[in-house]
Design brief:
There is one protein chain. The protein has two domains: 108 residues, 3-Layer(aba) Sandwich (Rossmann fold), CATH 3.40.50.10330; 181 residues, Tumour Suppressor Smad4, CATH 2.60.200. 23% of the residues lie in helices and 33% in strands. The chain has seven helices and twelve strands. Helix 2 packs parallel to helix 3, helix 5 crosses helix 6 and helix 6 packs antiparallel against helix 7. The longest helix has 11 residues.
Length: 302
């Protein structure tokens, strides 16, 4: 961010955009700063950084059950090591080019925001909002391992971490209860209803947007304004997991008989052993977990 910021400031000056700048100093600082700004009347909050920064800003814009201010707009300027969220919307990866999109009155629309409640490290319930993608199982373990690898690897850090985690992976028996419908083979106007997936699985993806893991198009049909979350449940062996990983970069891993696909507004997960849970690239706890969505929560500027 430090190298990108002078270029971003020049763009903002040329566009005549006034701003109050907060440089974050610790984990959670962006949550605190955003909440303070919105509570004091800010109506346009821009996350300058990677997916972790966006995650914190979104959590700062949300209250217990709804946005702090439903009219407060979110903007994004990518300037971090991970920038998967922006890919769904076609926001330029170059910070200065992305900053040009902050001018004017045009909005992309209102962004759905997901929420997960899961078991924290100390056995308590942890609640977190997410704008992009949540996971339980293998994908969350990949996020945990990637956080320990050198940042100089850039987007390749997820590919390397995935290959390392596939070796020791083991499925869990679980029950996934959903208020939703199948994503394929049914009419698009099929109403949501109770659904259950029961059995072994290695990977659960709950996606609001399409990309994660350094450019993997994990949920190619996700629409972050359809009031639903795309759910993928995979049960594969190690060889199949490697093939699935390779195909994810092009979004070609689905349809597949190894991946069950659903659309749901609420997902409840219980497992025979604790499975790691992550959202937006942040490991937050383990199963049991409940995911749901607040539709049209935040106006989004592109």
């Amino acid at each position: 961010m430090e190298r990108a910021w002078p270029r971003v400031e020049r763009v903002l000056d040329e566009a005549g955009l006034d701003r109050d700048v907060v440089v974050t100093e610790h984990r959670g600082h962006a949550v605190e700063a955003t909440r303070n700004a919105v509570e004091n009347g800010a109506t346009f909050v821009v996350a300058v950084g990677g997916d972790g920064t966006i995650h914190e800003v979104v959590n700062g814009m949300m209250a217990d059950e709804k946005p702090l201010n439903p009219d407060a707009v979110l903007g994004v300027v990518p300037a971090g090591t991970g920038s998967d969220f922006i890919k769904t919307f076609g926001i330029p990866a170059d910070p200065a080019e992305a900053a040009k999109h902050l001018a004017g009155d045009h909005l992309w629309g209102r962004l759905d925001v997901g929420r997960v409640v899961c078991r924290g490290a100390h056995g308590d319930d942890v609640s977190r909002w997410f704008a992009n993608v949540g996971e339980a199982g293998l994908g969350a373990e990949v996020v945990r391992r990637a956080a320990k690898l050198p940042r100089r690897l850039g987007g390749n850090v997820y590919r390397l971490a995935a290959l390392q985690e596939i070796i020791p992976m083991r499925p869990a028996e679980g029950r996934i209860e959903m208020h939703g419908r199948k994503a394929r083979g049914v009419r698009v106007d099929t109403p949501l209803a109770p659904l259950v997936y029961e059995g072994a699985f290695d990977l659960l993806v709950v996606a609001n947007c399409q990309f994660f893991g350094g450019g993997m198009k994990v949920a190619p049909r996700a629409i972050p304004e359809d009031d639903m979350l795309d759910v993928l449940v995979a049960h594969v062996n190690r060889r199949e997991a490697v093939k699935l990983l390779k195909k994810m970069y092009g979004g070609n891993h689905v349809p597949s008989p190894k991946v069950a696909e659903y659309l749901a507004s609420r997902i409840s997960v219980t497992t025979s052993r604790a499975m790691t849970v992550e959202v937006d690239g942040e490991v937050i706890g383990s199963t049991p977990a409940v995911f749901d969505v607040v539709a049209a929560a935040i106006p989004f500027k592109v």
